[in-house]
Write a structure and sequence with these properties.
Two copies of one chain form a homodimer. Chain A is α+β, with helices and mostly antiparallel strands. Chain A is 40% helix and 16% strand. Chain A has one domain: Ribosomal Protein S8, Chain: A, domain 1 (2-Layer Sandwich). The longest helix of chain A is centred in the N-terminal third of the chain and has 19 residues. In chain A, 58% of the residues are buried.
Chain lengths: 349, 349
């Protein structure tokens, strides 16, 4: 980590927007995608940050992702919609879908928008948090490429399929849960494999479905779901509500972001709940504050004060907005290379 | 288990309806509550079955639960509603709420109904499965009395807060996930405590928030959530979406079913998703069948074929419908005693 170079948010933002517009996105779409990537970098989920620009553009150049498709609402009811992303960027589809879900919830109390034929959309929390400023609860799920084996099997079929929920507070910071259904992110195992370290039991299974501490065996096997059959079941449910409900894919058919043999067939679901249709939103937010304070005042199990879901990420975001986002020289070089190909004159940092 | 007496479903149903109508419920409400309790017994969740009749009626007699309150929809939007259960039975409120959510989803694509001032509602899957026959996905959450400590603390504050999702299939049986956010049910720890056995590490924490194998220490401490901060976060989110959104309680205030110091302050949320507003329902169900068959055909990790969420419960239900529900003589005696107090002439079995 010591060799990481801190890059200011403003500089990275300018660079990413310049690159994406040169690549062919509208200024607005480039800003949306950039905001999502920076949100991930700021919140400490670097695997879903600007490093993804290379793979996104790589997919477009390989002809397996569309940069500017005409996304279309194919089916619509008063509180629901099905958006066809037409193999465009997940961030653009996701922002449209979440906005539509909130518009529907404004009138109907709840809005649910599903997205078919999409791609990697970055971090789920990015969309869930869009509900906060409208006094709504945001709930987002997505499927992903195979990583978790259905319980009792040894073949990864469902993704780490995350679930994000954002709940607004008054004076306190919002509660933002963004969790995968696997025990840890696959990136942690990749890192252990690279540096040749063992991984703890409980993280992953080998190709025989047996617990392993060997990072390389784990990468060939599958990720351990949280709570055994519970996490594996949750991952399956999320896949069915995304892939099968939208008609995009059957379980096991989502392609990894590095697999350029065809469209990724990713799909998502966005739900907005309009708090004001249940309780006075100010009262609600005061009550969330009260709950947060109640939890913060509990005796600690570890010596350090307890963190609410999303709190560590908000702290990190504040720090990184002040000090810059640490990027490895390798990532910076890759991005600069990519930029040069598109005639981008901005430099990173 | 050998001393359990198998009781036929028909006999238990007749007994429970007789008892509940004598206690003061309408015939229809008695049938609803009975159907929920039997569903739990049939599916192997005996802790939520007819054994609960004693505690439900006990709460009514203690004056902390209402048998026949006038439940009222307090707020309503095209796709959402807030139902005040007025401290009545959770099963009655839940059935009304799920039916209303489905009616709303029929028109709006999705329906979301929250229930305030409710009580223990039995198993969440019972309501989620009501969506199946209407070609909908049912999603149900509820809060419960404190059992899980917010991550980093040692004080149980949130419940085991279950989540149930039911998804219809065509020729195959539906997929029904019904999971608590704790690693195991508290009943398993209670059983170990009674028979003096150690519990595995990973099930529970002692009052210092440290992992324990001592069942008695575990019962005084808290239940281990699935995936550490993930399960604990999910449990908190479910509490906020139930207790705080409905204005019923702040986190930590739901009373245990045996605590007769006041109303339990339980609350729930019911969501119905109308499949036909996204994709042809027959196509959807065929695709769910295809996914089920794909999973069933995977190589097994254990030697036995993999089970889909809910499959073990459906198998058990078929067996128990044929062979009867095994009840302990103690539970039968308690129920007969209760029945005599109300002048019920039916016997169990």
């Amino acid at each position: 980590m010591n060799d990481r170079i801190p890059v200011s948010v403003a500089s990275l933002e300018k660079f990413s927007i310049a690159l994406l517009t040169k690549a062919g996105l509208s200024r607005q779409d480039a800003a949306t995608v950039t905001e999502s990537l920076l949100s991930a970098d700021l919140r400490g989920i670097g695997s879903h940050g600007v490093v993804r620009l290379t793979s996104y553009i790589g997919r477009v150049r390989a002809g397996v992702m569309e940069l500017n498709p005409s996304m279309e609402v194919e089916r619509e009811s008063p509180a629901s919609a099905l958006l066809n992303a037409r193999n465009g960027l997940g961030q653009i589809a996701g922002s449209k879908a979440m906005a539509l879900a909130m518009d529907k919830a404004e009138v109907c109390g709840v809005g649910l928008v599903s997205v078919k034929n999409s791609n990697h959309f970055g971090i789920a929390a990015f969309f869930a948090m869009q509900a906060l400023k409208r006094n709504m609860v945001g709930l987002v799920i997505t499927n992903a490429s195979p990583a978790i084996a259905p319980y009792g099997t040894k073949t990864p079929l469902t993704g780490t399929n995350p679930l994000a929920v954002a709940i607004p507070a008054a004076a306190e910071r919002p509660i933002v849960l963004d969790m995968s259904t696997s025990v840890v992110a696959r990136g942690k195992i990749r890192l252990a494999s690279v540096i040749g370290e063992a991984i703890p039991l409980g993280w992953a299974l080998d190709t025989d479905g047996k617990p392993t501490q060997d990072a390389k065996a784990a990468l060939k096997g599958s990720m351990e779901p949280i709570g055994g059959p519970k996490g594996s079941g949750l991952s399956l449910i999320i896949d069915l509500l995304c892939g099968v409900l939208t008609g995009t894919s059957l379980t096991g058919e989502v392609k990894n972001v590095t697999d350029t043999s065809g469209p990724s067939k990713t799909s998502h679901m966005f739900i907005a709940i309009n708090i004001g249709k249940f309780i006075d939103p100010e009262q609600f937010k005061q009550n969330i504050d009260a709950v947060i304070r109640r939890i913060k005042s509990l005796p600690s199990a570890s010596g350090s004060p307890p963190y609410l879901p999303g709190e560590i990420e908000f702290n990190l975001e504040a720090k990184r907005r002040a000090e810059g986002i640490p990027l490895s020289p390798k990532v910076i070089a890759e991005l600069q290379d990519l930029a040069r190909k598109y005639g981008v004159t901005e430099n990173i940092g």
